[in-house]
Amino acid sequence: MATALETGPSLTLSKPLPLDSGQVLERVQIAYQTYGTLAPAKNNAILLCHALTGDQHVANPHPITGKPGWWDRMVGPGKPIDTDRYFVICSNVIGSCMGSTGPASIAPDGKPYGMRFPVITIRDMVRAELALLDEFGIEKLHAVVGGSMGGMQALSLAANFPERAERVLAIATTARHSAQNIAFHEVGRQAIMADPNWQEGAYYDTGRDPDSGLAVARMAAHITYLSEAGLTHKFGRRLQDRPNGEKGAISFGFDADFQVESYLRYQGLSFTSRFDANSYLYITRAMDYFDLAEEHGGRLANAFAGSSARFCLISFDTDWLYTTSDARSVVHALNAVAAPVSFVELSAPYGHDSFLLDVPALDRVVGGFLG
């Protein structure tokens, strides 16, 4: 995907957006979706924060893929995040490519930013989201909710803007990236930058996008979203069926002999139709920089010392990307400052992606906490 897309409602922020880098973005465009009705008192708003490759299309068909929104099972009338009760808003993060200002956007000189786009952080993403809420006149959220990178945003909002949310629900997330997390991201970034079509990030309008590198990056990352048990159950070592009815044979990488190979290739290739390679570079770097303890004097508890919100942390027993231990470290920090916090580890076979899939216990926890 070579250009930023207009995919539904968007607005231009009325004020410049300051960034952690010291730079300022002017006329920032924010693409968003809303569900439900904002109460006259504007006290029923829930901000949903999306993950790395997510976007604002939470509970409506995706304009590119046609598939249901990424949390359609969770958000809607009578669902755990009940749009009969709550006004739900989700914006595309800055740096992304689904309508919000990012590397594919046009810079003041009339050309796409490319790699001239300023470095962004998770806290910058939150600033943009709060600026959007300001445009709606929403001073305090009923809740901020997010999974994975969305959970990072939820925690960052609670730590840096504690007056803006009554409840904080962070799912399958962490307060900082481990060396292993950073390493996996670096593999993906190098795959993109090694693609000759990357052209130092200046591939817009050339007709040659680094789709091969982006596909490999997605494949590598997707492995981390799954569990070994889940992969084994779904694919095992089963070979692909051939048109002549024979099973796969040794092909030295030219064909997808194993079903799991075919699955990963599909995930990689389909991803390139809806995502921008430079956005992937910028957003993964923002996640790697994220470290709430470092932002607050080296002690994680300091990050939440000024918060009066209620917290709920959820982890999954098969998630090896953001582990239960990662969630517990946040819970311990909240305990240290006597913040009201609930914590649950749920059992699910799907690995990190469990928060997006059919886990009835998650539905019950989410609905109960928000209510």
Automatic annotation (TrEMBL):
GO terms for cellular component: cytoplasm. Keywords: Acyltransferase, Amino-acid biosynthesis, Cytoplasm, Methionine biosynthesis, Transferase. Residues 44-356 form the AB hydrolase-1 domain. Its EC number is 2.3.1.31. Pathway: Amino-acid biosynthesis; L-methionine biosynthesis via de novo pathway; O-acetyl-L-homoserine from L-homoserine: step 1/1. Substrate binds at residues 218, 353. It is found in: Cytoplasm. The active site is at residues 148, 319, 352. One of its GO terms (biological process) is homoserine metabolic process. Belongs to the AB hydrolase superfamily. MetX family. Homodimer. Transfers an acetyl group from acetyl-CoA to L-homoserine, forming acetyl-L-homoserine. This is Homoserine O-acetyltransferase. The lineage of its organism: Bacteria, Pseudomonadati, Pseudomonadota, Alphaproteobacteria, Sphingomonadales.
